[in-house]
Write a structure and sequence with these properties.
Enzyme class: oxidoreductase
CATH topology: Pnp Oxidase, Chain A
Number of strands: 12
Protein name: Flavin reductase family protein
Largest sheet: 7 strands, antiparallel
CATH class: Mainly Beta
Order of helices and strands: HEEEEEHEHEEEEEE
Organism: Bacillus songklensis
Pfam family, one: Flavin_Reduct
Keywords: Oxidoreductase
Structural class: alpha+beta
Length: 159
């Protein structure tokens, strides 16, 4: 099977959208990702999958920490910034939570210490021990079939 068929099939799984952040030498880095999941309640563990060619890969390996910001439905532009989809300059001001950079007004911010790295083909699975969580009400930013979606109408949303 070819790569496009595989990608198209995986795109049929609707997901929320996150921004993963870390900090190395007082410099903040982020990337958009939908490869995120909870792993365990006791202990509290979450997992992110990061491509080995992504700049974020080596930064997380170095920092041994990451934060996950679960984006709300009004944060599509933020997702596009960290996915490299916007050509215009866009200044991101990070909020600090548990001494980590996170996206302000996200539905949830989760800070983690990497407790295990699992080699998985062209990605590494970073399992994080959750160190703190903050949440707020709102609707999620969704991604399905290669497009941002609205939870109410299930149609593509506009920026």
């Amino acid at each position: 099977m070819d790569d496009r068929l595989f990608r198209n099939a995986m795109g049929k799984f609707a997901t929320g959208v996150t921004v993963i952040t870390t900090e190395v030498d007082d410099e903040v880095y982020g990337m958009t990702a939908n490869a995120f999941m909870s792993v365990s309640l006791d202990p509290k563990l979450v997992l992110i999958s990061v491509g080995k060619k992504a700049k974020m890969h080596d930064r997380i390996k170095q920092s041994k920490t990451y934060a996950v910001s679960l984006l709300s439905d009004h944060q599509q532009k933020m997702s596009m910034v960290f996915a490299g989809q916007l050509k215009e300059d866009y200044e991101v001001i990070f909020e600090r939570f548990n001494n980590m950079p996170v996206i302000e007004d996200a539905l949830a911010n989760i800070t983690c210490d990497v407790c295990k790295e699992v080699d998985a083909g062209d990605h590494t699975l970073f399992i994080g021990a959750v160190t703190d969580i903050q949440i707020q009400d709102g609707e999620p930013l969704l991604f399905f079939d290669g497009k941002y979606r609205d939870i109410q109408s299930s149609t593509s949303s506009l920026v």
